[in-house]
Amino acid sequence: MSSPFNDSRSQAAVGKVRSALLCQSPQDFLDYKNSDPLRDLSSVVRLDLDILRTSQSLERNGSRVMANQEQDIGIRLPPGKPGFFRYRTCICLIVTFAMLLFSLDAIFYQGIVPHIPGLVGNTLSKIGIQVYETNTSAHSAPSWYFPFPKGQRHQPSLPLDVSNATAYIDNLRNGSNGSFTLGPVASGGEYSTQASSEITEVLREKLKNLDIEPAEDHVFKSPFIVTPTVYPQPKKQQANDGVRTKVISVFNAPAWYRRPGLPNLMAYNRDFHQCPYYKCEVDMEAKKLQHADMVIFFVGAIGSRPPPPRPVGQIWVKAYWESPIHYGYPKNYAPWKSVFNLTYNFRVDSDIFAPNNFLAWRHRSELLSDEEYLQIALKKKKPVAWWVSNCNTQSKRQEYVQEMKKYIDVDIYGKCGNLKCTKTTMAFCKQQLNTTYSFYLSFENSLCRDYITEKFYRNFESRTHIVPVVRGGANYHRYFPPEGFIDAKLFPKARDLALYLQKLAADPVKYARMLREKDRLVTLGYKHDWCDLCRQLHTTGFPAKTIPDIKAWSHSKTCSEPNDIR
């Protein structure tokens, strides 16, 4: 069945919401939201008729109906008689069809969209339906997952497909990256970013369906470029039988981590339903702190609290995803100095490595032809764009760009520039960014070890035809193929970088080659693999160690001052 959203006006409307999600990572969301029209955006609800087809199978014992693999929606009903189920299903379809008409009106007039979340949530809850979000990003999903026809290769397609109205709008309000999946199990992911341990032919075929190639097929190796583990229908390990459930408690979970807008949802496999080892539980409210096997502490938000009582053998984990420039430790540091066993953040040397994003190798069949890339290059009209809201930073990126502007045109959008985008012009702005400019400045606010945010990863979203220029504290050339980006670190001063960009922008053949190399990678989205954490708790465990000085680990000689401006 074809989608009712294939006309150009609808695509443009949906594109507004898709484009608004360029700010993906929670680490930079607070920095970005003040000027980003995302917070004021009237959301567009896409209810594709394809998702209205539900599975004919009914599990009598649990009275649960799930969408099949070709659908984006799952519904869960409480136990009841089959007749009652049919009654509710009819109501569901009627309500959903009404929502479709309602949403079409909202797409073109946008006056009533802010009321949709309450309408959807209240209506569905009254008839006993729980709508859930899952975690596979659309940009690495099969080609039929995209709302745009596959033939429209040059249509900018950022990672979003909307099938769940309530969860989607709540995601927008809470700064999510808008990643959804087909999963047949609530909150379960079709794949995880944890590297797969064995590349079987079955896995290879599943990865192909996701338009991804195994990292093992490529010479370039990096902890940031992974082969996702696929969890379509996990085989439950016998080791789960008779095993005590492991409890992972979070001492002070921030809002973006707890997802307060979605209280019934456990995103990113946090319900462990898809996991081969599933005897784990996450306690976000620290209610089971004394019984937890592992406790995660967000050290930058501890405040003046002392360490809680600690049972023997409990693993304490230091977590935080801001750069060391932007967080510290309690004034009374001594009680916290040597209590942590593990580190959990974006640094490669962390015990639990969890960067702001992961990349995967795009399947070669999804790359455009050399001629198509050349045509994209020839249509570029402006050299450099930069979208920024935090003007005064440790990296002095504002001063760096001002020096660049003496030698090359740089259009600056957002709070720190003279170009603005309102909610009505957002789609146009993002399309301009994708089609008009040759380079995007992915400049970090801090020059700290391995600190890489969405400013870099957003350039690897599906069909984003722009080359990133990076400036940060990470060793980019060690972690990413250097042919697909430009590192400011290779140029002594801002002037040298500007002159090089000017020269490259004037060479469409060379630029097209770089664009093709950049397109070999695709972002997998922001997700941490709770399945692997549960597996490790039940099997190999974690190294028995104590970090002697956690502040020294995170803050000592991990950031540098800029010396490349002029």
Automatic annotation (TrEMBL):
It is an enzyme of class 2 (transferase). The chain crosses the membrane at residues 90-109. It is a single-pass type II membrane protein. Pathway: Protein modification; protein glycosylation. Its main location: Golgi. The keyword DNA repair does not apply. GO terms for cellular component: Golgi cisterna membrane; Golgi membrane. InterPro entries: Glyco_tran_10_C, Glyco_tran_10_N, Glyco_trans_10, GT10-like_C_sf. Its EC number is 2.4.1.-. It holds the Pfam family Glyco_tran_10_N. The keyword NAD does not apply. GO terms for molecular function: fucosyltransferase activity. It is found in: Golgi apparatus membrane; Golgi apparatus, Golgi stack membrane. Residues 379-553 form the Fucosyltransferase C-terminal domain. Keywords: Glycoprotein, Glycosyltransferase, Golgi apparatus, Membrane, Signal-anchor, Transferase, Transmembrane, Transmembrane helix. Residues 270-355 form the Fucosyltransferase N-terminal domain. Belongs to the glycosyltransferase 10 family. This is Fucosyltransferase. It comes from Plakobranchus ocellatus.
